[in-house]
Amino acid sequence: MSVKTDTGVPARLRPSPNHGERLNGAPIDMLILHYTGMPTAEDALKRLCDPRAEVSAHYVVDEDGSIVQCVPEARRAWHAGKSFWKGDRDINSRSIGIEIVNPGHEHGYRAFPEPQVEAVMDLCKDICQRHGIKPWRVLAHSDIAPERKEDPGELFPWAKLAASGIGHYVEPAPVLAGNIMMQAGESGQPVEALQSMLALYGYDVDVSGTFDAATRYAVIAFQRHFRPVLVDGIVDQSTLVTLHQLLSALPSLDD
Question: What is the model's pTM?
Fold first, then answer.
């Protein structure tokens, strides 16, 4: 690995052996944000650098705002796992992964400290500018693997990142009592319309007209990222309006 980091923001190197070639000439056009989900930052770094773990990320951002680069950006880090977005299933080959130190839902999930958030924003801006990554291609791990992952979770301040130009975001529609529209087990044209909207945005759902488990997981992932005040997998007016507004704000549905 080079003795210099790829990023222009302050960072140090801690090389991981866990990486490979980017496959099929895929461009770097996605940025995926994770949380480490381990008790300490050092636990996470040891795992990301352990060849037996077969997992890695390009960067790790600690709670104090310090940044470590583990994998060169030109290389394919192993952070996304089995994943999907807009028809692509090899997200690792076309993305850069940032691990944000947080114990996660299994070890005492908590808010992300301000110095950490500021460092994440600086790093994201630098990466997106250098690679031309579009705002709607900055995603949560849970977006691309909703059945397996919850990170970085509902406490991650996506709205703050969006205010600084990172990520795609609209102000979520307010949650109103008694506004349940669809939930698991239901079927019909409204469910089909919901699935079409989720699939258009990028989620891995079949447009079947049946509110199956995959649809529920996609709704939960969507809520975690874009309507985090209530994450329950039930489609209410707030969820549906927010999804529609996000789609309407895209310059193209093909990107």
Answer: 0.97
Instruction: Kindly list the structural domains of the chain, giving each domain's residue range(s) and its CATH number in brackets, ordered by start.
Output: 12-163 (3.40.80.10), 180-249 (1.10.101.10)
Q: How far, in Å, CA of 159 to CA of 168, rounded?
A: 9
Specify the DSSP element, H or E, that contains 59: strand 59-61
Which residues are marked as active site? 99
3-class DSSP assignment, residue 183: coil
Q: Which two tokens stand for residue 96?
A: 């850069």
Asked whether the beta carbons of 6 and 72 are under 8 A apart, the reply is: yes
Q: Where are the alpha helices (DSSP H) in the chain?
A: 41-48, 114-131, 141-144, 158-163, 189-201, 213-226, 237-249
CB atoms within 10 A of CB 185: 10
- Note down pLDDT in tens along the chain; length 255 residues: 457 999 999 999 999 999 999 998 889 999 999 999 999 999 999 999 999 999 999 999 999 999 999 999 999 999 999 999 999 999 999 999 999 999 999 999 999 999 999 999 999 999 999 999 999 999 999 999 999 999 999 999 999 999 999 999 999 999 998 788 899 999 999 999 999 999 999 999 999 999 999 999 999 999 999 999 999 999 999 999 999 999 999 988 777
- Residues with Cβ within 8 Å of 240's Cβ and at least 6 positions away in sequence, in order, are 181, 194
Name the nearest CA neighbour of 166 among 111, 221, 124, 116: 124
Neighbours of 28 (CB within 10 A): 20
In order, the DSSP letters of 65-96 are S-EEE-S-TTSEES-S-S--BTTBS-GGGGEE
